[in-house]
Amino acid sequence: MKTMKRAGLLALAMLAAGTAARADELVIATTGGLMRNEMEKWFYLPFTEETGTEVIPFDIEVPDQWARAEGMIRTGNVEFDIVTATGPDLVDKAEMLMDIPCDTLENVKEYALPGACQPKGIARTTGGMVLTYNTETYADNPPESWADFWDVETYPGPRGLPDTGDRDWWLPTVALLADGVAKEDLYPLDLDRAYAKLEEIRPHIAVWWKTGNQVQQIMRDNEVAMTMAYSGRALKVIQDGSPFAMAWDGAIRDTGYLAVLKGAPNPEGAMNFINFFYGAADGHPGFIQAVGYATSSTIGLSQLPEDEQKLYATYPANYEVLVDPDFEWIGANRDELRERWTNWLLQ
Amino acid sequence: MSMAGFLQPDGRNLSKAGILLLMAPFFLLIGFAFLYPLLSLLSISVTEPQTGLQNYERILDTPVYGKVLLRTLWIALLVSILSLFLAFPVAMAMVSSSGAMAVFITACILLPFWSSVLVRTAAWAVLLQRNGIVNDLLQAIGIIDAPVRLLYTQGAVVVAMTHVLMPFMVLPIYGALRNIPPDYGRAAAICGAGPLRSFFEVTLPLAMPGVLGGFILVFLTALGYFITPALLGSPQEMMIATLISQQLREFLDWPFAAALVGVLTLFVTAITLLFSRVFRFDRMLGGQV
């Protein structure tokens, strides 16, 4: 309903404008609020200043964005240039996305971390789906891993897990970690074993959270004592003074990618922006501090003080205990993963 | 059109053509904004990915979808019954009060009715959270030792939906009660009926059109309700509207979502027809005695 209303409004706005997007405009879809505001401040406005291309930010949650993009492609009227993609989206939605010319973008060649530039998308921000716990509830004996999350005897208290985004593989993944599977042996996921383990924790989940705002809210309101959270969201709650901490062992690497829709009105501008993003050194420290996620630009990272780097997924000690998901396998099995998840949760 | 064609020969009432002409904008709007999108959605459900009923077979073959549908019917029924029992006394009070009191009760019903459903639902989230007023109160008077889970439960959904939908129950019942001449009650008393007997044998039967009208209004609205279950419920106790939205927005499975819409439409139509067959609709909505 809300989506349809907004689609209607957008259509009206486009009619009122009288024209489709122009060549000196670039429409970038991201989640609203923090991410939109900080991208605008540190990158969109400097980009406009340097190139004269006006960036039009569009606020939308990622699933809504794909629904909208699907509709745009169905009707042949593509209005987004750059969209936000998750790792699996790069495989799943590959036919909707343009190839990123990793070898020809100067700043990408120079500064991108290894693996940051993928065929269908380029890393914007990296965080993790991280175990976050209340440091007052577990003052004497903090949980350290997903096995501890499952251990309700030693660590009693209401828990939270996501029912949004990519939970259909996030949760089987951490369930297997909790069941003793080694990080390098996770994929392909043993779903029967994973769901048997998930069944154990199910009665202890007080909140299946739906959005990044909600996971922050349930931490602040003590609705949960520990939860899986986006690391950047957890970081904000911690910095705001709530008694929470992150346990990085077994956190799932979660990279948000910039991707370009096929049929985008301004593909050239989109590639220019990606190149600008990797080279605009001045923007990165402020942006990383504000959104709580690290970029994959080496000149960006190196400008943060060492002790602050520890709070981010790309800090070496954190990075080496992250789970690196096998997006090829996940993408190839996405329908089964989703069906399994929906049927399990609704049963 | 001349006045002669617009009116019946007696020159007082509208002719059939006149009625149709006046109704035309309404039917155009319904056709454009409701029937057309609904039908095009339903056609997707039987034409994609292939022509056939495979989307409907998937609903039948997967037990969880039936479960979601049954749960939706159950919650809608529960909400309707609860709001009936809460609304009837309120409607009676509205009818029998006058002056400032009547204004006050009406305001209590109508003011929340005019505020956003989202706001009313969010207010319940504040009340029911772990450190919320309800948990604090229950702990203060010693009923519970530690906060209990109230938010994100089926109970939270039922309570909040009852609150949100209650005006739809109060108003038709109020309409029906107001149409009962006060003489009837006095006549019953003169004939020796006590207040209880007078209520059950005079007031209630005469108020039935309003009761049924309110009941079907609340029940059908509750069947397709989205915001409250999405915000206060747990995905483990999902209702059908949330499931449809999830299939559309997250899984981009339009054909399957359309099939779910088809099933919901089927239920709503069947229930509406059943009601209109058993109880006469014009009486329900008009509240005429």
Automatic annotation (TrEMBL), chain A:
GO cellular component: outer membrane-bounded periplasmic space
Entry's Gene Ontology BP terms: thiamine transport
Swiss-Prot/TrEMBL keywords: Periplasm, Signal, Transport
Signal peptide: 1-23
UniProt xrefs under SUPFAM superfamilies: Periplasmic binding protein-like II
Keyword field contains Signal: yes
Pfam family, one: SBP_bac_8
Record localization: Periplasm
GO MF term list: thiamine binding; thiamine pyrophosphate binding
The UniProt record lists the keyword Signal: yes
Gene3D superfamilies hit by this protein: Periplasmic binding protein-like II
Main location (coarse class): periplasm
Recorded family membership: Belongs to the bacterial solute-binding protein 1 family.
Name of this chain's protein: ABC transporter substrate-binding protein
